[in-house]
């Protein structure tokens, strides 16, 4: 029998804050690779990933699950056994398929709609805070562009509208533009973005594609602020932005940065329901 019930590995403040929630529910926790050590008081701390995985049958990772220098999918694949149950976010499909073939239960937080929506809310709030922190003008009545109108784009647009920003939604989907229009937002077809880019003071990118290219960045006003919250590698040519002296911020992991405790409660509740 394993010495601990749950191994919490990698991640950010969200995983750090999950530890006391598990402990409050009577679980013994071993941790590994959590940077926020001042906030995590696990029952044990592993010195290696192997020690953590050997110590518990339930593995809870961060969002994303893979974290450079702490947790690599290749190493995790080598160390897991049939006894394990794995929770984490943005888990590669190839790894989930491998777990299925090996009869290992693997649950991706971000494939759970309720968690994904909660994450989008925290991301939207974090994006607004990043905008306020990095610019000395009001969001109120600002010309604000939201690129993409998926889950995050919709919630972010609504938050900005609530702050009385002049919000324009940019998308290549006529359906998304129609929905944005129905909610009283301005709309901009993606093919017109380059010609209109210079009109906006705040630009929020939620689309996981390189849309803000050097050619487009050349059209952006000098005082514009770009907040890139897209998944993956984002949607901005950052080298070009630096050359053009444009402030472009890559902002991954905003829920962990600004809403670690609340996000951790949401994730912990999901894990506890499925143990």
TrEMBL record:
<protein>
    <submittedName>
        <fullName>Dipicolinate synthase</fullName>
    </submittedName>
</protein>
<dbReference type="InterPro" id="IPR036291">
    <property type="entry name" value="NAD(P)-bd_dom_sf"/>
</dbReference>
<feature type="domain" description="Dipicolinate synthase subunit A N-terminal">
    <location>
        <begin position="6"/>
        <end position="110"/>
    </location>
</feature>
<dbReference type="Pfam" id="PF16924">
    <property type="entry name" value="DpaA_N"/>
</dbReference>
<dbReference type="InterPro" id="IPR031629">
    <property type="entry name" value="DpaA_N"/>
</dbReference>
